[in-house]
Design a protein that fits this description.
Length: 418
């Protein structure tokens, strides 16, 4: 925001260039911090919805910027009329930042609890973790592909409509605003869909994959838009593409939040940097294709296929779900019980029934630290008791020194071990 204010006082090209570089540098730092924040304050089932709200802010800003600038500048056609929006909007950002810093308390963004920290693997360093992290390398092509689609289409859309389809400049500008509105709606809808799927008992990762796949199918409609003439049909298809292209991002953000417990902010920042390093040069490649073919159709069609490549990467490279992933974040009794039963059946269990009436949820999570077989269940607060559980194994491994503390809990929870 401070750099935005200083931009309004630039006097030559060099000072403007420095301000724009600094603006990009400081603005980029927002995303790793923001993603770290949504991970802390929201559980896995609600995280995609939180990321949708976060991402939608960018689209809302793109929608509001033209009328706000027009309101500030009005009919002023003086040479320095452009300076006022930078100074005013940047000043508002400074005020907001100060209000945020003074209103946010330490417990609003808590650090991991001690018991959670003990569960974390040994810290081997950020670089080594990235090199050996399968999730990180899976998300590299994903973030590149979804950014290619979003950046290329939104940047070249006005030229496609005006030069490629013969729309007037006014029509193209008005539709550009409608495009961002549709993108914002698609972004919120993506989060809402994952939230609904989690409530009916679906695991967070599976719900994200389904929504991601659906959005990738919507962006692939660029192959249809590339052959449609100017008219209502083309506009409708482009709005659908807008919704799908931005709806991909909340799902990706939620997956990037699972890459690392210790270094999530740095991994998210590195993934974003890689995406920009690839997508930025592709703008000139798109322009060269237009110059060579004298058409925007081929470039537009190819840009929408990129998320399909990202979906294939996720399907074949992302690690399989763990038991803990399957039992997280269901709400309500019956769907939660069904999900828990299915997950434990996969985890060497023959039978499990969830019933109400036990109020020892916190004790259950504490004892899960002692009983390894119960550890996957500690993140599942909605199931209040387990009435019966049978294992194929002859015994449940328990530290003999802690057996005295475990036995009362097992009795209270009415767990019958075979």
């Amino acid at each position: 925001s401070t750099i935005g204010v200083l931009t309004g006082f630039c006097s030559d090209y060099k000072s403007m260039l420095v301000c724009r570089i600094l603006l990009g540098f400081f603005e980029a730092g927002h995303w790793p911090c923001a993603l770290r924040t949504t991970k802390i304050v929201l559980d896995s089932s609600k995280r995609t919805m939180g990321n949708s709200i976060l991402q939608s802010g960018g689209a809302i800003g793109a929608i509001l910027t033209p009328p706000v600038i027009l309101m500030i500048v009005g009919n002023n056609e003086a040479a320095g009329a452009w300076r006022s929006p930078f100074i005013i909007i940047g000043s508002l950002g400074v005020v907001w930042a100060l209000a945020w810093l003074f209103s946010t308390r330490a417990d609003d963004l808590p650090a991991p609890k001690v018991e959670e920290a003990h569960d974390m693997p040994k810290d081997s360093g950020f670089l080594w973790e990235c090199l050996t992290n399968r999730k990180f390398w899976t998300l590299v092509p994903v973030v590149i592909c979804i950014n290619l689609t979003w950046q290329l289409i939104r940047a070249w859309l006005p030229a496609f409509l005006q030069e490629g389809r013969g729309a007037t400049e006014k029509t193209a500008l008005l539709f550009n605003s409608a495009y961002y509105i549709a993108a914002d709606a698609g972004c919120i809808a993506a989060g809402a869909m994952t939230l609904w799927m989690a409530k009916i008992g679906m695991s967070p990762h599976r719900s994200r994959m389904l929504v991601f796949g659906f959005c990738a199918a919507l962006t692939a409609l660029t192959t249809v838009a590339s052959v449609l003439p100017l008219g209502p049909g083309l506009y409708i298809v482009l709005l659908i593409i807008a919704a799908g292209s931005l709806g991909l991002f909340p799902c990706y953000y939620s997956m990037s939040q699972e890459t690392s417990e210790r270094h999530m902010g740095k991994t998210a920042g590195l993934l974003g940097a890689l995406a920009w390093l690839v997508s930025s040069p592709m703008q000139s490649v798109f322009g060269k294709i237009v110059d060579r073919t004298h058409s925007y159709d081929a470039g537009l069609a190819v840009a929408g296929i990129a998320p399909v490549v990202a979906l294939v990467a996720l399907l074949f490279l992302w690690p399989s779900e763990t038991v803990g992933d399957r039992v997280q974040s269901s709400e309500g009794g019956r769907p939660a019980a069904r999900l828990l039963r299915n997950s434990l059946t996969h985890h060497r269990c023959q039978e499990v029934r969830a019933v109400g009436g036990w109020r020892g949820g916190n004790a259950f999570r504490r004892q899960a630290e002692i009983v390894p077989e119960l550890r996957p269940l500690r993140c599942f607060p909605d199931v209040r008791s387990v009435a019966s559980r049978r294992f194929r194994d002859r015994s449940l491994p328990v530290d003999p020194e802690r057996r005295e503390t475990v036995a009362p809990f097992l009795c209270e929870a009415r767990l019958r071990l075979v």
